[in-house]
Amino acid sequence: MQLDKPLPWFSNLTASFAFYPVQKANVDSGANWTRPGSLVGNGAYVLKDRVVNEKLVVVPNTHYWDNAKTVIQQVTFVPINQESAATKRYLAGDIDITESFPKNMYQKLLKDIPGQVYTPPQLGTYYYAFNTQKGPTADERVRLALSMTIDRRVMAEKVLGTGEKPAGASRRT
What we know:
This is Solute-binding protein family 5 domain-containing protein. One of its GO terms (biological process) is peptide transport. Residues 2-168 form the Solute-binding protein family domain. By secondary structure, this protein is of the alpha+beta class. The chain has helices at 10-13, 24-28, 83-91, 106-112, 140-149, 152-160, and strands spanning 45-51, 55-60, 75-77. A hairpin with a 3-residue loop joins β1 and β2 (55-60).
């Protein structure tokens, strides 16, 4: 991959699924390239079984460079479309992990199941866009003043309130 100019956070972006490598020959081989036995990856696990809207089952990839340290022998992913349903199944012990929960339950879950709620750092942005062509916000000084009035810590902790970390302005306003 070649970039037009340096991008300091590029290495962080490569951890996103959008940057996972796939072999062009496999994609070009036809519609079945994502099925068990056909899907080629470079991770610790390979797809063993897939039932659409029911489950994905992965097992250790014997070709993985560090396979000796892959201790979990099978993982079953269960697609659950509603955060509340996933949370109920987790709390009932039906599933071992869920990647999301209703945001309005965050504080309650922290209290009820301490040590089990984790919000990992992730690349994300909340922002306000202004018409910078006309009106008061056409003046860069007004936009800068507005930016300076935002308490990012309060926004992250009290408004969003689910473990987000505040960041500074992403560019000149």
